Amino acid sequence: MPSPPTDEQIAFARHPEGCFLAACPGSGKTRTILDRLARLSQELPPRRGVAALSFTNAAVEEFKHRCFSSDQLTLTRFPNFIGTLDSFVRHFIFLPGGDFPLKPVILDSWDSLGIEVRLRGQLAFRGSGVSLDLFDCSTNDIDPDSIGVQALRDHVAQHRARYVAAAGSHRMGLIRAGYFSAGDARTKALEFLADAAIGPALARALSARFAEIIVDEGQDCNPSDLTFLNWLRNAGISVTLVCDPNQAIYEFRDGNLENLNAFRDTYREESKLRLTGNFRSSQIICRLASSLRSNGVADEALGDHRDAGLPIHILSYRDDGFSSEIGVRFLSRATRAEISHSNCIVLAHATRWARQAVGTNGTARVEGSSRLAVLASIVSIFRSSSATPRQRETAIQKAEGLFLDLLGKRDEGEHILRAIERNSIDRRSLRRQILTFLSEIPWSCTTQAGDAGRWIEAVRRQGIALNLELPPRTTIQGFFRAPPNTRWAAILAPTTEILLASSSVHEVKGHEYDGVCLVIPPNRRPHNRTAQLVDAWENVTESEAKRVIYVAATRARKLKAIALPQTMTERCLRILERAEVEFERENF
């Protein structure tokens, strides 16, 4: 039975105009947003609605789930809208504002088409190209420091003007073919807003459709996001922004707390509201979160788990001992606390560290670009018990691309959605074939020649069993040709995988679990990222890496574990002692 709403929650739900709401973790903001939207929608005439926007598909799905569980299904239906801010911009500004010769295909990333920028001739770089995503959508400029490979970074710095020109040419060719990245769609949408004819027409249409738009996770707004929100307000639409500045972890999108504060100051003082009190976590976990805040103030635990007395479990591993033992020991602690394994998760800043901590091949790399190597990567995720639904969906989409290539239904560089539409393919039928195929392929393989050969034969047998209509001169054996070596099979190497979910921290924003293990990887030169994180935590300085840890900490209801290298353990324990956080230590 949910607790009755607090005075702060009631004040927000009933506030008569758009507002800026600062909400701490577990403060019941999702429930209160739903209460506000439900109240507003009931007061509106037919065909006028409200919208709830966030920044990730996971957050949107969680919001929709809450609508279903609270019997507020009307909020998910016309004229209301629930989705990401990007999807809102695409659906209500980009597509209506443009006169496109081809129906646009909007990609989350150019990498999904394998787009790379290269120089040709004597200036060609021997190795990988540069992702088009690294070039600015408006200017095509690039910061060489954004490139991870030193030799390529130096090459781009030396020939920057040529790379910028090549990126611009590549981008224009893709746009003419009907492809836009999310960033390109945003750039075009901003142009539409500034257009003397298009902008006012869009404003009239949107203000007629929406009475209020609520943006959750507002701390992740970048300058273009805030430009859209200001434009919506100027169009006469009430805009409410809900945020927790301590959870701002999207600097790679140019998110900036100074811009957020400037946006906050555009609201009247009586429209700057707060939600305090944590209904999710124990008081011990709230104190851990306070150690990661600049002000050091702990939220008051108010929910059912407020008195859970489980200390923070510190898993101190040898710097060279990072392994699935982390997951084993975390599950052992969860078992002793009588917490279901199905309600536990291992998190890290990068997915590969979380996967390795539960025994998957988190650090394995697919060798080569052969179709079998790509398929091995797909199978490793599809069959992994630690993969998230989003990771599995991405893997299945890659398999769709492989099948379209096998059937001769996709042009070079063509996106799967364009190919499916152009060929009038029933995507559900295609999915069923792919799921059957992936389910029957062995989930593991070693790099020994005999094992790799048997795995390849199993792939071919399952492909033949589907009785696909292949184009002339195409065979299953020829399509799935054996690579020249077996290094690709490392991704399928047998492991001691633990039945435990794993994910990056970014993927679980808005979610909560009874038990959360945060994995802090070994410190590695030259970047020394773990040392920099501990420095910021120790010295109470602002750092996105520290805010990522804060997000991970505040996902937990009862049990919080932190796995970190022994060389950093003592410093972290002193931080916890200073914040009066109870902990227990386990070395291995």
Radius of gyration: 25 Å
Main sheet: strands, sense, barrel: 6 strands, parallel
**Structure summary, number of beta strands:** 16
Q: Any low-confidence stretches, pLDDT <50, length ≥5?
A: none
How large a portion of the residues is in β-strands, by DSSP E?
5-15%
Mean pLDDT: 91
Number of helices: 22
Shape label: globular
Textual characterization of the structure:
- The chain is 43% helix and 13% strand.
- The chain is built from 22 helices and 16 strands.
- The strands form 4 sheets. A 6-stranded parallel beta sheet has the order 3-2-8-9-1-10, with helices on both faces. A 6-stranded parallel beta sheet has the order 13-12-14-15-11-16, with helices on both faces.
- The longest helix has 18 residues, at 389-406.
Task: Give a quick rundown of the structure.
The protein is of the alpha/beta class. The chain is 43% helix and 13% strand. Strands 3-2-8-9-1-10 form a six-stranded parallel β-sheet, with helices on both faces.
